[in-house]
Amino acid sequence: MEKREELYSGKAKSVFKTDDADLLILEFRDDTSAFDGKKKEQLDRKGKVNNIFNAFIMEKLKEAGIPTHFEKRLNDREALVKCMKMLPVECVVRNISAGSLCKRLGVEEGQTLNPPTYELFLKNDAQGDPMINEALAITFGWATEDQLKEMKRLTYEVNGVLQRLFADAGLLLVDYKLEFGDFHGQITLGDEFSPDGCRLWDAKTREKLDKDRFRQGLGGVVEAYEEVGRRLGIQFD
Ligase among the record's keywords (predicted)? Predict the structure, then answer.
């Protein structure tokens, strides 16, 4: 597999073309940002840890029958993924109240949400990734009705798989975001799943073991990611 020119560079990952039009190389960097890029930092080992963590989760989802763009981990920082037409809509599931939900609605952090909430956000940094609904997504051509229906179905399937996985490791899956794309007509899970894009708490102490440690200046960000991985049985070295 030949790595070619860079196609895209995001906040924490870079995407490269390959000699196969259907495949890309996803590179995980040590860059970390929060609050729409207003807070930035480089955290040693973060790219490696997220790449290995993501590979583990994607394999678990594939085993559960969920279509993902993940093909294989190439090395410590790179993964081979399918080349998809990404949809500019983020799907967010919240199992426990935290973050922007508490600020937006004035509810207390830590409330179990039954049933879990499901929200859509437009991927648009300039606009602060605004919350949208299905009607808006369809009207402006961000996704079709059928695509949205399949994205929602898959997002809830992911929730069931990962809630059980994390619970067995003594962790609470508080909330998370997923991104999807179209791969030859099939809605397929893309991007990554790591503590960068979800909230994970210790089930007993409710200690935060995710990117909130960076947002809130708690320190030990990568160490927390590694702790989550170890509980899941992931080897980082």
Answer: yes
For residue 27, give the DSSP letter: E
Q: How many domains does the chain have?
A: 2
Look at residues 57, 54, 91, 94 and name the one whose alpha carbon lies nearest to residue 174. Answer: 94
- CB 19 within 8 Å of CB 4: yes
Which DSSP letter does residue 16 get? E
pLDDT digits (tens, 9 = 90+) for 141-179: 999 999 999 999 999 999 999 999 999 999 999 999 999
Domain stop point among 50, 82, 114: 82
Q: Residue by residue, what is the 3-state secondary structure of 117-141?
A: EEEEEECCHHHCCCEECHHHHHHCC
| Residue 45: CATH number of its domain | 3.30.200.20
Give the domain range for residue 115: 85-220
pLDDT digits (tens, 9 = 90+) for 90-120: 999 999 999 999 999 999 999 999 999 999 9
Strands 31-34 and 131-132, by their bridges, are unpaired
**CA atoms in the 13 A half-sphere facing the CB of 221:** 24
pLDDT band at 30 (very low <50, low <70, confident <90, very high): very high
| String of DSSP letters for 46-86 | HHHHHHHHHHHHHHHHHHTT--BSEEEE-SSSEEEEE--EE
For residues 78 and 132, membership in a common domain is answered with no
- CATH code, domain carrying 196: 3.30.470.20
